[in-house]
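I'll show a record.
***
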Amino acid sequence: MAEVRIDKWLWAARFFKSRTLAAAACAGGKVDVNDHAVKASRAVRPGDRLTIGQPRIRRIIRVVALADRRGSGADAARLYEDLTPPPPPRELRTPPPGYRPPGAGRPTKRERRLVDRLTRR
């Protein structure tokens, strides 16, 4: 096998729980192959560099082997090499949103937008 569809490979490598979710991520612009946005039907080959946007993290991986069937987690880990940089130290991370004491009333529209902006990453 020389190439496999990207949605099949992402599913087989266990980045997504279903092939439908993998295809939706490709359609939504969350998956790049060699720094180009791709559709779900794009073929992936060994040596390709993938960037996958997942909640709270952007993973960078290099394809090492191909598979079109989902196997165990150990088998999936052999399909790629993880190039994602380590997360920043704990003290450099952004703090959680401010504490709002119980009974302080309902947030205003402006406060709600600020909270939404912090939690939507």
